[in-house]
Amino acid sequence: MVSAVSAIEVTTKYRRGRLPEAEPLAVAFERETASEGFMSLPISIAHAAMAGGLRIQHADPFDRLLIAQAQLEEALLVSNEKLFDGFGVKRLW
Questions:
Q1: pLDDT confidence of residue 39
Q2: Which of 4, 34, 36, 82 is the most buried (most CB within 10 A)?
């Protein structure tokens, strides 16, 4: 699965010039991820409510949504963000 949150984050960073090498992904995120066999994971009301209600000292809304999605979907989170390790999610990378 690839989260809609990742699409927001990649395209935002690309637009701001912080991820110039991601142009193919930023321009056609859905097509590119589908061509690699990933299913999309939309942001549900349950995901959003859990993210907003997480009692953690982390303000980044993208990270909060990814944490909530990983918890609710019991999914492995692929990220190099070590800070996720303290929030009860399984992380690879």
A1: 96
A2: 4
